[in-house]
Amino acid sequence: MIGFQTKPSSISSPTGESFNFRLILKEKLEGSNALESMFLEYLKRAVDLVLSESTPEGDLFLSSPLFLKSLVQPLPKNPQPVSQVSNNLQGKQDFDQIVQAAAQHYGMEPSLVKAVIQAESAGNPLAVSPAGAQGLMQLMPETAAALGVRDSFDPAQNIMAGTRYLRQLLDRYRGDVKLALAAYNWGMGNLENQPKSLPKETKDYIARVENYYRSYIKS
Q1: In a domain, 17, yes or no
Q2: What are the DSSP E strand ranges found in 119-171?
Q3: Most buried of 71, 79, 127, 184 (most Cβ within 10 A)?
Q4: Does some domain include residue 137?
């Protein structure tokens, strides 16, 4: 009878080194965050399925993974402190200048930030939603406070914070723009707990951001 080994199996290389394959496999799985990857894949497929049910075939938002590379870049090395960038821009009504500064600071595509602004507030710095979201990128008061915003109606503070939050979501979902936008609009908890229940409002929101983004990159 052949029994299982009680010690991890190993084998020697031609140079005499001993390789513990079971340990190597364990380290690889831990290093790749296998469970997290599986969960993100589940979220992606669930959201894609929901969107495909209401979107004409071939017109899914950002369906190509290659497209994502132009939207999210590595964070700049030694960037200016957010407070300094925001202070330099406070009081300015040149939203394009603020967007460019925020996008550069957080390694984002400016056209995506502009598209979110248009979808959220139509470019109105004083916009307030029925739910209480404020400003250009419609930050909820608790979110704004957590991001260090003192005045949500100051365009510089609001756009810097909204861009930072969007970047955090993109990092959380490994650059998947659909998931990041769904979480921005619907909330991370809702998305991660019940992705198959993605509401029509969020589906429409993703489509609007896409349309605005396309128009901005063409202009």
Answers
A1: no
A2: none
A3: 184
A4: yes
